[in-house]
Predict the 3D structure of the following.
Amino acid sequence: MNNASNVNIPDNLISLAQSIAPMTAAVVCAHHKSAMESTKQAVEYRLIKPILIGNKKLICEEANKLNWDLNSVEIIDHSIKEEAVVAGAQLAKDNKIQIIIKGDLHTDILMKIYLKKEFGLIEGTRLSHIWHMTTPNHPKPIFITDGALNVAPRIDVKMHILRNVVEFAKKTGISKPKVAVLSGTEDPIESMPSSMDAKEIMMRAKQENIDAYVHGPLAFDNAISEEAAKIKDINNEVAGKADVLLVPNLETGNSLSKIMVYFMNACAAGFVVGGKVPVVVTSRADNAESRLASIAAAIIAA
């Protein structure tokens, strides 16, 4: 099972994020131990300049426990979670922040307010979630999308998801990402709708000249194992060498990422893209390494 001491923060994410000037980040509902710990760590790594939004008394209490002097840090006092989110969304609307970091609240509360038209944070594309996954024995990242936001996306939504992840992968230094559109088979069959979707996505990606190698359907083994692809005589640019796993639904992406975390000690950097500012949506159950990596990834995405 997962042992946090064996989790490694991906060096490429931290170094890439540190090559960018520290970004102003709104930490919404910051009055929680894990949120304050990861924010302080991100400050120490010179990744962000935080604005802490939440219960000011509790924020200061947590800061004291961490020996963190907040004299130079802006705090916006809001004890009601929805009001804290509104304050963060308004900062994004007014171009005063570049990323949002979720603290002690549910993701759906945060994203419901983020999507409100009055804030103008949606810019003609679809929001999607990306996992940047690395393991101690396999430092090459695997991107999993979408495992936290779009539950059962239609093909047109999956095309938004595809474009979002290709754009981010390029920002991490992958010149032409290899995208495997996952299903339970490598052959499109009508009895498995996800395989038919995968075939359609591959065709649309070619028609739209998306600058990535996109192939589907591929089963998981054929996507990540060159040996499995060779045994099944699957020959294309993606098989066995995928950078990106575009999953058929949220359950698949969520399960894959959690399996990697709890059985492979993966560092899971998760964030939402597609809006005006990226949103870090870590869980209180996430380890400190994953929370810091998520902030770094969002900075790169921004």
In short: Residues 130-269 form a domain with the Isopropylmalate Dehydrogenase fold (CATH 3.40.718.10). The longest strand covers residues 128-135. The chain is about 40% helix and 20% strand. Residues 155-171 form the longest helix (17 residues).
